[in-house]
């Protein structure tokens, strides 16, 4: 990556100085000049990585972390939201609700998973907390 070169901040009344501010995991370290009509900033992510971000991206919340952290967050989000293992198979939530082994509605399934049931239990068992002596 090319080194980021800090520049003096322009002496214009309309200019908003973001130095020292934090946006999500990013802390603005210095001004890098204009790219087109956008002011760009040297930002340091909480993980230590330095990246460049423009004023509108920071202010509108489209830049909140470095690319590495953004990718990691996306992967975690994706994994949490879509990957569920049951019966030795790894399927997305939507796929499981359409699976023939799913005996409950998607709403019930979601609620059961929230309660901490495993995907396998949530798919097939009758609500055991109502009568724990009867096997579903
Ligand atoms: Zn980061």
Task: Give a structural overview.
Among the domains are: 44 residues, no CATH class; 49 residues, no CATH class. Helices cover 30% and strands 22% of the residues. The chain is an alpha+beta fold. It has a 4-stranded antiparallel sheet with strand order 1-2-3-4. The longest helix is centred in the middle third of the chain and has 16 residues. The structure holds zinc ion. Zinc ion (ZN) binds next to helix 2.
Molecular shape: rod-shaped
Q: What structural class is derived from the secondary structure elements? A: alpha+beta
Major beta sheet, strand line-up:
1-2-3-4
**In this structure, how is the largest beta sheet organized?**
4 strands, antiparallel
Index terms:
136 residues; alpha+beta; 4-stranded antiparallel beta sheet
Give a quick rundown of the structure.
By secondary structure, the chain is of the alpha+beta class. The protein has five helices and six strands.
Question: How are the secondary structure elements laid out?
Answer:
Blueprint lengths: L21 E2 L2 E10 L2 E7 L5 E5 H5 L7 H16 L1 E3 L2 E3 L1 H5 L8 H9 L4 H6 L12
Antiparallel strand pairs: 1-2, 2-3, 3-4, 5-6
Zinc ion (ZN) binds next to helix 2.
